[in-house]
Amino acid sequence: MSTLVIIAIISVSALLVGVAIGWFLRFIIALGQKGSMELEIKEMMLEAREEVDRINQEAAEEADTIVKAAKEEAAQLKEKLSKTEERLINKENLLDKRQSDLDEDKERLEKEEEDLKKKNKKTEELYKELVERLSEASKTTVEEAQKQLLSIVEKDFNEDLMARLHKMELAGRDKLESRAKEIIMSSIQRMSTHIDSEVFVTNITLEEDAVKGKIIGKEGRNIKTFERLTGVELLVDDTPSVVTISSFDPVRRYIAKIALENLLRDGRIQPAKIEKEVSQAEKEVQKIIKEKGEQAAYECGVFGLDTKVLHILGRLYFRTSYGQNVLEHSKEMVHIAGMIAEEVGADVRVAKAAALVHDIGKALDHEVPGTHVEIGRRILQKFDTNPEIIKAMQSHHDEYPHENLESVIVTVADAISGGRPGARRENVENFIKRLEELESIAKGFEGVEKSYALSAGREIRVFVTPEKVSDFQAYELARNIALRIEKELKYPGEIKITVIREQKVIEFAR
User: What are the beta bridge partners of residue 419?
Assistant: First the structure.
C-alpha cells in the first residue's frame, strides 16, 4: 500500500516537474520568437527608411532637372521675346520714316500742283489775250474762223476723202467676203463625210430556200399576218435565199427586219409567234431610239439637254428628208457649226446644241400639226431648254428673225450640209410625201384602225375595226377612199385599195 502511495507521489511529482519544465521551455521559446519578430520589424523599418531616402533623393534630382529645363526654356522665350520686340521697334522706326517721307512728298506735290494751277491760269489768260488780238486783227470771231477753216479743208480734200472712203469700203467688203468664204470652205473640207441616201427595201438573207414556205405559211396566213402587223410588204420571189422587206417608212422596215430575223432564228413561224415577235421588236426599236439620241449628243459633245429631248432626237435616226438621214444630217451640222463658231468668235456650245436639235420637230411632224420648226420650238420650250439655243435653231428656214450670231451659223451649216452634191434627192422626198398623203386619206375615215401604202404607192391596205365597220360597210369604205384619192391626189396609173376586216373571238374553257 505504501509502495503504491510512494509511486503515486513520485508520479505526481514527476508530472508536476514535467509540466514546470514544459512551461519554462515554452516561455523560453516564446521569448526567442518575440526577439526574432522585433528584429524583423527593425530590419523592415530600416529598409523603409532607406527606400524613403532614395525616393526623396530621386525626387530632388528630378525636381532639379525640371527646374533647370524650365529656367532654360524661360531664358529662350525671354530671348525670343526680346528679338521680337527689337524687330517691332525697327519696323515702327521704318514706318515712322516712311510716314515722314510721305508727308514730305505730299507737301512737294501740293506745292507743284499750286504752281501748275498758276501756270495754267497764266496760259489761259495769254490764250484769251492772243485770241482777242487775232480777232481784232482779222475782224472775225473764233467760231467764224473755225467754220472758214473747215470749209476750206472740206473743199480742198472732199474728193480725196470720198475716194479713200470708197476704196476702204470696197477693200473691207472684199476682205470680209474672202474671210467668210475661207471659213466656209475650211469647214466643208474638214467635215467631208459621206451620207448614203436611204433606200426603200431591206433584204434578209436566208440559210436555205425551204424557209420561204414557212414564211408564207398555209394558204399564206403567216405572210398576211406579218404584213398586217408590221405594215410592210414582204416580197418572197424566185430570188435565191433572199426575202425583201419593202416600205417607205424606215421604222416599219426596221421593226419587220428584227421580227423576221428573230422568227428565222427560232424556227417556229406561226401567227401567234409572229404577233409576239413584232411586239418585242417594237419595244427594241424604242430602246434603239433612246440609245441613238444619247449617242448622238455624246458624239457631238452636246450636254445638258433633257433626256426626253434626247429620246425624241433619237427618232430622227429613222427619219429622212429628201433622201438624207436627218440624224446624220444634224450630227454633220453640229461639227460644221462648231468650226464656224470657233472661227468667228461665237458661242460654240450654243451653236452646236442648236444645230443638233434644229430639225427635232421632224420626229413628230407626222403626228403634230404645224411646221417642223414650230413643233421643235414647242418641244424645246416644254423641256426648259436654254432660250439662246431656241433662238439659234428657230431661224434656219427664216420663219423667225436671226436674233443672235449663232442663228446665222446654224442657217449656214444647214445650207452647207444639205446643199452638198449627192446629199439630197428631191424626188425621194416628194415620193415619201405622196405615200404619207395616201395613208392619211385612208386614216381620215371613221372605223379605220391602220393604213399602209405598199408597192411603191400602187396599193394601200386599210385595216378596220370589226365592231365599227361591217362587211357591207367595208365595200362602201373602199369605194369612198378611192373616190377621195382620185379627187385630192395626182398620180400615174392606178392605186389598189384593199380593206381588211378581221374579227377574232377568244374564249376559255375552264
Answer: none
Other CB atoms within 10 Å distance of the CB of residue 62: 10
Lowest mean pLDDT among 164-178, 251-265, 493-507: 164-178
Quick one: three-class SS letters along 139-151?
CCCHHHHHHHHHH
Closest CA to 373 of 394, 355, 398, 352: 394
DSSP string, 250-269: HHHHHHHHHHHHHHHHH---
pLDDT of residue 463: 87
Q: Which position has the grid cell 405594215?
A: 231
Query: For residues 316 and 326, is the Cβ–Cβ distance under 8 A?
Result: yes
Looking at residue 194, its pLDDT comes to 47
The count of other CB atoms within 10 Å of the CB of residue 164 is 11
CA 338, CA 347: separation in Å to the nearest integer? 9
Q: How many CB atoms lie within 10 A of CB 129?
A: 10
Burial of 1 (0-12, 13-18, 19+ CB in 10 A): exposed
* Mean per-residue pLDDT over the chain, rounded: 80
**Residue 230: φ, ψ to 5°:** -100, -25
Half-sphere exposure of 383 (CA within 13 A, CB side): 18
- Cβ neighbors of 300 (< 8 A, separation 6 or more) are 331, 334, 335, 352, 356
Cβ proximity of 354 and 377 under 8 Å = no
Mapped onto helix, strand or coil, the DSSP state of residue 324 is: strand
Helices 326-344 and 307-314 pack at an angle, to 10 degrees, of 120
Three-state DSSP at 347 gives coil
**Amino acid occupying residue 360:** I
Q: Would you state the cell numbers that stand for residue 488, as one nine-digit string? A: 385630192
**pLDDT for 107-118, tens place per residue?**
888 888 888 888
C-alpha grid cell, residue 6: 510512494
Q: Which residue has the higher pLDDT, 281 or 490?
A: 281
**What's the chain's Rg over C-alpha atoms?**
55
Residue 121 and residue 123: Cα distance in Å, rounded? 5
Distance CA 173, CA 407 (A): 22
**Among candidates 457, 289, 473, which has minimal Cα distance to 364?**
289
